[in-house]
Amino acid sequence: MRSVRVTLWITLDGVVQGPGRADEDTRGGFTYGGWGERYNDEVMGREMAKGMAEPGDMLLGRRTWQDFITAWGRRTDDNSVTAHMNAATKYVVSMTLDDANAWQNSVLLRGDAADNVAALKAESGRDLSIIGSASLVRSLHAASLIDRYTLLICPVTLGTGARLFEGPAPLTEFELVASVATTRGVIIAHYDRR
């Protein structure tokens, strides 16, 4: 059985929207895009590289998949992140895409996200990682399909923006299995479902 692992940059007030770039996600008039960039350092790079070193498949929502095509799918450098992103099988959960041919090794999953992911989890194969895709994470969490959260908790509050859990989330207990503090005050916390 496969596990589902989520990695998210998150503010102290729970915002997960647009950490990477100013234009990453401006929905709802969000003007703080790129808030996470100032927290990158060698410690974070090393910790993220550990996750990329493990072979695995990716699970992405449509918006994140389309954004990642621009960020990673067209790159040709020898960067280990680029190599990992392009080589991984990318399962794209979408009700609106017609196909997933725009990025190599992408597979379109149409229909209910929880049903599709439950079926994938039941198969033998590599673990599934989600980076971003907050609405997908919310629906999978509600269906008890998330096995691990890696949260990069940044020392900032924004007061606005999409939060990890915007509505009620079912009672779910997690255990802190590892944590690292970066030189810029980020706590990288790994939580496994109990």
Describe this structure as you would to a colleague.
- This protein is α/β, with parallel strands linked by helices.
- The protein has a single domain (4-193), classed as Dihydrofolate Reductase, subunit A (3-Layer(aba) Sandwich).
- Helix content is 26%, strand content 24%.
- The protein is built from five helices and eight strands; from the N terminus they run βαβααββαβαβββ.
- An eight-stranded mixed sheet has the order 4-3-2-5-1-6-8-7.
- The longest helix has 12 residues, at 42-53.
- The protein is globular.
- The two termini are 16 Å apart.
- 28% of the residues are buried.
- The mean pLDDT is 92.
Summarize the structure.
It holds the Pfam family RibD_C. This protein is of the alpha/beta class and 194 residues long. It is 26% helix and 24% strand.
- Spatial strand arrangement across the major sheet: 4-3-2-5-1-6-8-7
Oligomer: single chain
- Outline the low-pLDDT stretches: none
Tally of distinct domains: 1
Looking at the overall shape, the CATH architecture is: 3-Layer(aba) Sandwich
Question: Got a strand count?
Answer: 8
Report the sheet with the most strands, covering strand number, pairing sense and barrel closure. Answer: 8 strands, mixed
Structural class: alpha/beta
Q: Could you say which overall geometry the principal axes of the C-alpha atoms support?
A: globular
In terms of DSSP E residues, the strand content is 15-25%
CATH superfamily: Dihydrofolate Reductase, subunit A
Helix content: 25-40%
Query: Total number of helical segments?
Result: 5
CATH class descriptor: Alpha Beta
Compute the CA-based radius of gyration. 16 Å
Average pLDDT reading: 92
CATH fold-type name? Dihydrofolate Reductase, subunit A
Could you give the order of the helices and strands? EHEHHEEHEHEEE
